Amino acid sequence: MTKVYTHMTMSVDGYIADPEDGTGELFGWYSAGDVTVPSADAHLSFHVDANSAEMLRQVLAGAGALVCGRRLFDLTNGWNDSHPIGAPVVVVTHNVPENAAKWVRTTFVDGVAEGIARRGDRR
After folding, report:
1. Which of 8, 52, 87, 95 could bridge 63 with an S-S bond, Cβ 3.0-4.6 Å?
2. Any alpha helices (H) in the chain, and if so which ranges?
3. CA-to-CA distance for 120 and 123, rounded, in angstroms?
4. E strands, 6-84, where?
5. Do 97 and 73 touch, CB atoms closer than 8 A?
6. What is the number of structural domains in the chain?
7. Closest CA relative to residue 106, chosen from 85, 120, 123
8. DSSP 3-state of 112
9. CA-to-CA distance for 68 and 90, rounded, in angstroms?
10. CA dist., res. 49 & res. 63, Å (int)
């Protein structure tokens, strides 16, 4: 059976982005510590505290796929088809991009249940 874990960064008041759709302030903790955790992207490492480092190492080691929404995918430019977690990306969307074929490690699906079931398969 597949295990599904959720991970999200949000501010204490419940916001995920500022009014201008910026998310930089919310992810500052990824670079606020003195423990380095390398990611699957050779150009990116996390610098967090010891407790966060332990959690990030577990997430990075155990992820089979990342399931996200189209808005996050668009805001990040699809992580250039190489998410730092190192796993394939599954994007839940009703509007598949016209250039979807260029995203080799990304699968676009119509619903969350399908995304979890597919976990990055290129079916």
Report:
1. 87
2. 50-62, 70-75, 112-118
3. 9
4. 35-38, 45-48, 66-69
5. no
6. 1
7. 120
8. helix
9. 6
10. 21
Could you report the per-residue pLDDT of 31-73, keeping only the tens digit for each?
Answer: 889 999 998 888 889 999 999 999 889 888 888 888 888 988 9
Per-residue b/e over 60-78, b at no fewer than 16 CB within 10 Å? Answer: beebebbbbeeebbeeeeb
Contact by Cβ (8 Å): 26, 11: yes
Q: Are strands 45-48 and 66-69 parallel, antiparallel or unpaired?
A: unpaired
What is the pTM for the complete model shown? Answer: 0.74
Helices (H), 9-96: 50-62, 70-75
Assess if residue 10 is contained within a domain.
no
Residue 110, domain extent = 24-118
What count of other Cβ atoms lies within 10 Å of the Cβ of residue 18?
A: 12
| CA pair distance 107, 123, nearest whole angstrom | 8
Residue 11 falls inside a structural domain: no
Taking only Cα atoms into account, the Rg of the chain, rounded to an integer number of angstroms, comes to: 15
Q: Is residue 6 part of a domain?
A: no
Cα 8 to Cα 15, 33, 43, 70, 98: the distances in Å are 11, 18, 22, 16, 28
